[in-house]
Design goal:
The protein has four helices and two strands. The chain has helices at 23-32, 38-46, 50-61, 79-97, and strands spanning 8-12, 15-19.
Amino acid sequence: MSFQPGDQQIRLGRRVYTLRLTLGALAEISHRLSVFGPDVLRQRLRSLQPEDGYVLLECLMRPCLPLTGARPPAADLSKADIVSALPAICAVFEAAFAHD
């Protein structure tokens, strides 16, 4: 999988993962967080709960995983791992929605 503008890489344990915001990832985030519409999603992202971090990581990792049915490792991560990934998660959204 090639690197695209807006992608962010994070190191979790010994592996490096790429985070990518796609329309599919955005739809899955909305569905799993039970928010519908960009304004509601924006409000939810401003007041994330710890379990939301797992959802965001899974959805943002999925587009760059091999198509072998591999499951994103986010469910196996500690809260410290999620906290360390938050800057990259924010950067993915900032790159996608930044207005020049």
